[in-house]
Amino acid sequence: MKPKIEVIYKDKNLLAINKPAGLLVHPIEGKKSEATLTDWLLEKYPEVKTVGDDPEHRPGIVHRLDKDTSGIILVPRNQKTFEYLKNLFQTHQIQKTYTAIVWGKMQPASGVIKKPIGIKTGTLKRTSDVRHAKMVKDATTVYRTVRRLKWENHDLTLLEVAPKTGRTHQIRIHLASTNHPIVGDRLYGGRRPTPSWVNRQFLHAGSVEFTLPDGKLLKLTAKLPKDLNLEKFETADPDSSL
């Protein structure tokens, strides 16, 4: 079954895709064959075949989202645009904002998480406990509480999250490191009684903002998908301040 993929922006140089959860961005070596975003891109926009640092394996890919994270992915349609976007990402000139729900009452209500991330020795799992990790890199995540929530007897927090660096699993690791993992995160969330309707991590890349080569500021947004249903959560103390 072919994935349903929404194009939210298109010009001669650039596409912006609203990636659904459950879709790999590109094939993973050693994994069984399954549909990927790059398969779809090669079929619909074959010009990306020669675009990128490794077009044979990741055509048109300048950044990525985890398989079970939904939201906006930028896709350059030519090498010049790829190099332009790559530079923006490397110099932190692209503002990405995510929506997440985490366990507990996030305290402080807003803040900055600055913790390096590495690969846990003997595994492929990332960690912020880098005492016994390899390939350690600095990582910074900014967050802001949007709303306090309840599910049954559990406190939850709806967050707006902006990663300032682009490490693999960064948001998931950083939030888990504060003892507020993302609801539905099977890898970093520990054993928690996840709501039955949440079948993946509650994380969505909802907006991207950056400047085009002609100087125009472009802001793109993608609404929460239907599987991330905020209405099923109860708002906690709606009249109280955070």
Could you characterize the architecture of this molecule?
The protein is mostly beta strands and 242 residues long. It folds into two domains: 91 residues, Pseudouridine synthase; 115 residues, Pseudouridine synthase (2-Layer Sandwich). It is 12% helix and 33% strand. The chain contains three helices and 13 strands, in the order E-E-H-E-H-E-E-E-E-E-E-E-H-E-E-E. Strands 1, 2, 3, 4, 5, 9, 10, 11, 12 and 13 form a ten-stranded mixed β-sheet that branches. The protein has a three-stranded antiparallel β-sheet with strand order 7-6-8, with no helix packed on it. It is globular. The protein starts with 5 loop residues before the first strand and ends in a 7-residue tail after the last strand. The model has no long low-confidence stretch (mean pLDDT 92).
CATH superfamily of the largest domain: Pseudouridine synthase
**CATH architecture call of the largest domain:** 2-Layer Sandwich
Instruction: Give the helices and strands as they follow along the chain.
Output: EEHEHEEEEEEEHEEE
> Could you give a short account of the major beta sheet?
10 strands, mixed
Topology-level CATH name of the largest domain: Pseudouridine synthase
Average residue pLDDT = 92
Question: Which CATH class of the largest domain is shown?
Answer: Alpha Beta
Q: Would you summarize the structure shown here?
A:
This protein is globular. Helix content is 12%, strand content 33%.
